Amino acid sequence: MTWIRNPQVSAMLLLGAAILGLVIANTGLGPGLDALKHMHLPFTVFGLDLSAAHWVTDGLLVVFFFVVAIELRYEFTQGDLSSVSKAAVPTIAALGGVAVPALIYLNLAGADGARGWPIPTATDIAFALGVLALVAKRLPSRVRALLLALAVIDDLIGILFIAVFFTESLSLPLLGLAAVGVVAFSLLGRAYRGKRGSWPLRILLLVVAAVTWWLVAMSGIHATIAGVALGLVLSPAPAESAREKLEPFTNGIVLPVFAFTAASVMIPQVPLGELSPVFWAIVVALPLGKLIGITAAGLLGQWALRVPKGGRVLLRELLGISLLGGIGFTVALLMNELAHRTTPELITEGTLGVLAGSLIAAILGATYLALLNRRYPDVETAEIRARDAEEYLRRTDGVG
């Protein structure tokens, strides 16, 4: 299953699933698919009564956020964000990439769509890294490192938005019990180290995770926050083991199923000019807002922090990163559903806006980076040239 860990494969699966969902929703099968998405089980699950679509967003997607949280913890403890100096520039760039799209959206969406301002602030890690790996293999490693760090911080901000702005009612007792579940999960994770063959402990971890997820869902906070909390507190050894086992599942099933479900909306039979301001706000805010926000904040951050010239991300590289930052997709689609849950017509237009804006950003980013990629020598060619230069200097040493 190594192939499914490839970021290019993951990005293609996401795109393919979204296109398939959109196409089917606009054929004769569309009404049946819509009915399936809204179908409920004939019984509740310990008080939870969710539609099939909500079992995807509130249940299946929790696994994805669990894996994301494990990556977040790694990046903040051992990776590219493990010190203040490492995290400073990506954090400033990410904040710019959140603030500018949100402001553009609020100026275009109007009062009816104002609740959706967090939608264009998201960046899809899997999709953005997939496009980068596909078209820009020669670019310096600092480009991928900054994009990864920026997307990780962006995801963290998105998670906070989901927890804070999309919680309508809150049960503190249930939330307190969920916190106890998170602590218990953390303690069990510590005991798991060195006991990889302990099936009873693994089963207990799964049970505690499931109960914690249920408590979070019943408390009023979106259930994906349970995955985030559990992933952040899991000890490194079991966390890495869980990530390795779950990554093929999230890349091959969770994200494509979510993309298919979220993108399966019927395109309104109206002229472009009659689409709601929400659609246009997202289409503009994702590619343009991210381009302006990340580029300006990234340059400002490097200047303000006096990053050494040799360690800076160049303007031409930052422009490419900013364009890929406009690929919102997974988290943007989720926030669109949460923001407009009471207005189905805005969910439809918001979904189309996310897909269109992300596609524009992906095409612009891929084209720009493919052209930029040509300006950098192939790694193998560069190594040959370096060896030739060393040989030349050795032979001519002392010859005047």
Automatic annotation (TrEMBL):
InterPro entries: Na/H_antiporter_dom_sf, NhaA. It comes from the Bacteria. It is found in: Cell inner membrane; Cell membrane. This is Na(+)/H(+) antiporter NhaA. The lineage of its organism: Bacteria, Bacillati, Actinomycetota, Actinomycetes, Micrococcales. Na(+)/H(+) antiporter that extrudes sodium in exchange for external protons. GO terms for biological process: regulation of pH. It is a multi-pass membrane protein. Keywords: Antiport, Cell membrane, Ion transport, Membrane, Sodium, Sodium transport, Transmembrane, Transmembrane helix, Transport. Coiled coil: none annotated. It comes from Agrococcus sediminis.
